[in-house]
Amino acid sequence: MSETALTEDTLVIGGVSFKSRLFTGTGKFASSDTLKQAIKASGSELVTMAVKRCDFANLKDAILPALKELSVKLLPNTSGARDAKEAVFAANLAREALGTDFIKVEIHPDQRYLLPDPVATLEATKELVKQGFKVLPYCSADPVLCLRLAEAGASAVMPLGAPIGSNQGLTTLSMLKIIIDQKQVPVVVDAGIGSPSDASLAMEIGADAVLVNTAISVANNPVMMGRAMKLAVEAGRLGYLGGLGEVLSVASATSPIDSFIDELMQKE
Amino acid sequence: MQIKLNGKKVETQAKTIAELIATLPEKPSAFALVLNGQIIPKSDFNETLVNDGDNIEIFMLMAGG
Fold this sequence. Notes:
The structure holds two protein chains of two kinds.
Chain A: E1 11-13, E2 16-18, E3 22-25, H1 32-42, E4 46-53, H2 63-70, E5 73-77, H3 84-98, E6 102-105, H4 118-130, E7 134-139, H5 143-151, E8 158-159, H6 173-181, E9 188-190, H7 196-204, E10 209-212, H8 214-217, H9 222-242, H10 260-267
Parallel strand pairs in A: 3-4, 3-10, 4-5, 6-7, 7-8, 9-10
Antiparallel strand pairs in A: 1-2
Helix pairs in contact in A: 1-2, 1-9, 3-4, 5-6, 7-9
Chain B: E1 2-5, E2 8-11, H1 17-23, E3 31-35, E4 38-40, E5 55-63
Parallel strand pairs in B: 1-5
Antiparallel strand pairs in B: 1-2, 3-4, 3-5
């Protein structure tokens, strides 16, 4: 495989092609300008947003215009939904507001760990697929659930590495490997990625993409971190495509081990 | 007449949703409107009448992961 392979390496989700395998979230940035610069530096082409009721007394609407300038594709989420019915409603609000069929189903009734409700997520996915949405469900790192979501017509699955915003990394690594091994649709590792090495690791094990938000937005320098994540995702992807060597329990010499020094000593 | 707009009681003379939207001093660049629990497509704003006691909610896109 030539080095140019990466330039031809395209990810297709819901009929849309992406060159960048780094998806980004827009939460927790200090300003819309920082957000814009960081997303630009990350090279991300798919960016998430949430749907919320307008607060007319304090209308903050700077983010969407900033993202439109970057020409990224938007992935609205259903965050805040506590069950399947609310998620389906939120998805329809997003479709009406943005005119996109893409939706990240996100149903986490528990506020402490924000873990996705697998039953409600599957139920919402089935209904939204029926309604013509391209559904990307945020879900537990459960290999059987991921298969069920794919069977239900999900365009991708988004299993978590760790709780949202926790920066713990890939605590579900062994399950993610199984999900990737038996995948029917693209696998996007979402939530928990706290560092560029976490993002690299997800890509090295064969994830199709990663979604990063907090690690970039809360960094001291989000623009620098956006760039770091871009490089990490590309490195991890190349590592996966290049093919990792076998892990051995003993050494395997990289230099000739003929004992020429011994021979020299004997001559003397 | 009086309606409820995003949880607040508001007096309005607007006859249609389109007229109501036009009276808003500020509105988000992209939004969805819900009238009494039903999402109203923008293409129906001109024909959809506002009635006394209606509950109208406007949703927008915000930062989120």
